[in-house]
Design brief:
Arc Repressor Mutant, subunit A, 2 strands, about 60% helix, about 5% strand, elongated
Length: about 130
């Protein structure tokens, strides 16, 4: 993972870990790797990973079990809400960029439909 020097690494980790949850890379209810293992994988300080995981807990995307570690929430509704929030952010970013290019909503919608079929041919419908 490459980090953006313009924003805190722990925040970027929250975004990355959230992505892993909504895509199923970290399935609901599964154990999350330990802080040290994640820090080594990502090449960051364990305290930074700890801060990101604490934020995921605060957002109820994971939970701690005293001696067993951290687990992804098993509340599918919470994961679906996160997925919708991330999709909304992506849509807002696209709209801002399309408007900045002088594109109207009809043109933007056509572009999305064309690119969706071309770019996501291997993704299941409705995903």
């Amino acid at each position: 993972m490459e980090f953006d020097t313009g924003s805190p690494i722990w925040g970027q980790l929250v975004a990355e870990f959230s992505r892993r949850i909504v895509t199923g890379e970290w399935p609901a209810g599964t154990k999350i790797s330990g802080v040290r293992d994640l820090a080594a994988e990502l090449g960051v300080n364990p305290n930074t990973v700890q801060r990101a995981l604490a934020e995921l807990e605060r957002r109820e995307l994971c939970r701690s079990a005293r001696t067993a570690g951290r687990f992804v929430t098993d509340e599918e509704a919470r994961i679906d809400t996160l997925r919708a929030e991330l999709a909304q952010e992506a849509a807002d970013d696209f709209i801002d960029r399309a408007r900045g290019l002088g594109m109207g909503p009809d043109h933007a919608q056509r572009l999305i439909e064309e690119r969706w079929h071309d770019h996501h041919a291997d993704t299941p419908a409705g995903a």
